[in-house]
């Protein structure tokens, strides 16, 4: 009897599993079933969102790994838009996205991805938009980064890329929009861009490009190919003020997606506001994003220390003056005092100027140690991704937790 009741409950559960988990907001967006589980310290994609979800956001959680078949095994096959931005993903199984046949828009920005196999998106044949910005792709091999026939929009903004190997984009025949701005590129071989025959928009901007004849030629070539591109090197070498102006000029025109895509396609595909251009950050927001609290604290401490030293110095001089320090009489004595004063000034100057010699580099997020992913797709993963997590109250899941629990 009890067993029967149990079975009935189980079957009810599996057929009527339509409640929205507590951590999520469920609603519809342009007729699509949307579940938004944002900023909830979630550690795995198995949150209990009903299988029918089509727009699924798990942004700002603490997911660190995407296991093979972790969506498929939970029955998520209708997802069209998947947002995993601002997690701590450093490992993605080769078949992690298996079953997501309808996935159009995948957002993996602001994670800790260093490496992924180039055929990882074969399981998602409909993928149009891929956002990989703010990951750590600093060691790129001379091989295709991604192999995908349909992908149209690829964002590699702020991925610490130092150079673009020639074969990087050879397997993206339909790529139309590419963003590789805010990386550490100082040279660019045109052979990287040549395979992208359909490219019609390119973002390259960073602060490291030398505006030399070579780079001006590259810009000219890009524009001559009919690619929408905003030149930032002038014909002549820019004067300093022009250079500063062009650095300050972060405003970007919003891209009209209608110029790129066929918007008369089926109504129920995806919400186009998602493809809207990321808003350019104001310098303050940029600062905010690039500086961790620790760095801010260290810098604040240094400034405070410097001010303290100067104030003490001034105060000491004043007090000394009031007490009418005896002025040395003999010329030799006076010279000695002056030399001591010089020495003290020198030390003070050193203390003020070189206080930051032991502090970490303040550029970007190099301060945060970043766990490294293995360079093969075998499941020999370290658990080091969990140690340096700002929001790590919840421990990450054991390896098998992605499996359905019943
Ligand atoms: C598209 O869907 C909206 C509702 O989401 C509807 O109002 C509109 O008529 C549809 N357009 C077409 C062309 O089917
Ligand atoms: C846009 O897509 C619709 C339906 O998918 C198709 O009928 C139409 O010819 C396409 N238009 C262009 C300009 O490609
Ligand atoms: C639009 O979608 C519906 C169901 O999602 C499908 O039956 C129909 O064939 C689609 N139309 C086009 C033009 O793709
Ligand atoms: C894109 O954003 C702009 C404002 O930033 C807004 O006016 C426009 O409607 C948005 N486009 C879509 C398709 O949501
Ligand atoms: C990906 O997520 C980030 C952060 O939530 C957002 O700024 C960006 O616009 C998203 N990218 C796409 C293509 O939707």
TrEMBL record:
Gene Ontology, cellular component aspect: extracellular matrix; extracellular space
InterPro entries linked: Dev_Immune_Receptor (IPR050328), Leu-rich_rpt (IPR001611), Leu-rich_rpt_typical-subtyp (IPR003591), LRR_dom_sf (IPR032675)
Region listing for Disordered, in residue ranges: 369-406
Transmembrane segments: 293-316
Compositional bias annotation for Polar residues: 374-389
Annotated signal sequence range: 1-17
UniProtKB keywords: Leucine-rich repeat, Membrane, Repeat, Signal, Transmembrane, Transmembrane helix
PANTHER family xrefs: FISH-LIPS, ISOFORM E, SLIT RELATED LEUCINE-RICH REPEAT NEURONAL PROTEIN
UniProt-recorded name of the protein: Uncharacterized protein
Organism whose genome encodes this protein: Pieris macdunnoughi
């Amino acid at each position: 009897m009890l067993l029967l009741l149990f079975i009935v409950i189980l079957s009810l559960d599996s057929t009527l599993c339509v409640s929205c988990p507590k951590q999520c907001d469920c609603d519809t967006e342009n007729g699509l079933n949307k579940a938004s589980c944002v900023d909830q310290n979630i550690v795995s994609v198995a949150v209990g969102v009903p299988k029918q979800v089509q727009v699924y956001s798990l942004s700002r959680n603490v997911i660190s790994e995407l296991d093979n078949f972790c969506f498929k095994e939970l029955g998520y096959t209708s997802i069209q838009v998947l947002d995993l931005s601002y997690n701590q993903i450093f490992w993605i199984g080769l078949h992690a996205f298996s079953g997501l046949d309808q996935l159009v828009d995948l957002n993996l920005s602001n994670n800790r991805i260093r490496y992924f196999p180039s055929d990882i998106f074969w399981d998602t044949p409909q993928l149009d938009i891929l956002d990989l910005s703010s990951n750590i792709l600093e060691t790129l091999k001379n091989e295709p980064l991604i192999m995908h026939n349909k992908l149209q929009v690829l964002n590699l903004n702020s991925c610490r890329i130092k150079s673009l190997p020639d074969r990087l984009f050879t397997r993206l025949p339909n790529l139309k929009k590419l963003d590789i701005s805010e990386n550490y590129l100082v040279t660019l071989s045109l052979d990287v861009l040549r395979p992208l025959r359909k490219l019609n928009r390119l973002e390259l901007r960073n602060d490291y490009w030398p505006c030399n004849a070579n780079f001006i030629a590259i810009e000219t070539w890009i524009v001559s190919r009919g690619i929408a591109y905003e030149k930032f090197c002038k014909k002549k070498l820019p004067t300093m003020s022009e250079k500063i102006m062009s650095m300050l000029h972060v405003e970007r025109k919003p891209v009209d997606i209608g110029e790129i895509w066929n918007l008369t396609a089926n109504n129920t595909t995806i919400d186009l506001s998602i493809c809207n251009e990321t808003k350019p950050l104001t310098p303050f927001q940029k600062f905010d994003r690039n500086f961790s609290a620790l760095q801010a604290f260290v810098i604040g401490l240094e400034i405070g220390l410097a001010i303290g030293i100067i104030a003490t110095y001034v105060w000491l001089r004043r007090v000394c003056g009031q007490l009418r320090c005896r002025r040395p009489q003999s010329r030799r004595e006076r010279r000695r005092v002056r030399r001591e004063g010089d020495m003290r000034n020198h030390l003070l100057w050193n203390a003020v100027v070189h206080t930051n010699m032991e502090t970490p580099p303040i550029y970007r997020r190099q301060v945060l140690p970043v766990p490294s992913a293995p360079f093969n797709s075998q499941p020999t993963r370290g658990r080091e991704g969990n140690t340096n997590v700002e929001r790590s109250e919840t421990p990450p899941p054991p390896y098998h937790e992605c499996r359905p629990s019943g």
